Amino acid sequence: MNWDDAQAYVAWLSRMTGKEYRLLSEAEWEYAARAGTTTAFYWGDEIGEGNANCVSCKSRWSKLQTSPVGSFKPNAFGLYDMAGNVWQWVQDCYNHDYNGAPTDGFAWATGNCATRVVRGGSWGYFPFAMDPRSAYRYGDHKLDRNYNTGFRVARTLTP
Fold first, then answer.
1. Which of 4, 43, 82, 150 has the most CB atoms in a 10 Å sphere around its CB?
2. Mean pLDDT split into 10-residue runs, the chain, 159 residues
3. Residues 6+ apart with CB under 8 A from 32
4. Are 54 and 121 in contact (CB under 8 A)?
5. CATH class for domain 3-155?
6. How far, in Å, CA of 132 to CA of 53, rounded?
């Protein structure tokens, strides 16, 4: 699944439902992942065992494959798999740091737009590069299709 595939899906879903669907902005993704917490992970400061699917998470799927949705407890917002399992594409162009980032929650539309931000971690990444902390991020070329990358859909609500 590459970034363009994710864009095609949300465009299709929007056409089929008559409602506006899109990828989350990076800021929205982090807000959803943290679910009001200030700890490294939404369940606490330590990875622990069986909280997510990642290399150092010690679940039965860790380092092997994706896990079924809902295999771990949801965060306080009721969202599943915000840490580990598969990286999630977000809308934002990649920038090395947050200097100049939008402060309104919208996606960053400038920077390296051939590279897009992915969040959340994956079942197959090494611990030094794949700590599913709520703040961890990296950029991947938007045309790269990886076995460990997916996306999360957001719906724009209007009053």
1. 82
2. 97 97 96 93 88 88 91 96 93 94 95 95 66 79 93 91
3. 24, 75, 77, 79, 82, 152
4. yes
5. alpha beta
6. 9
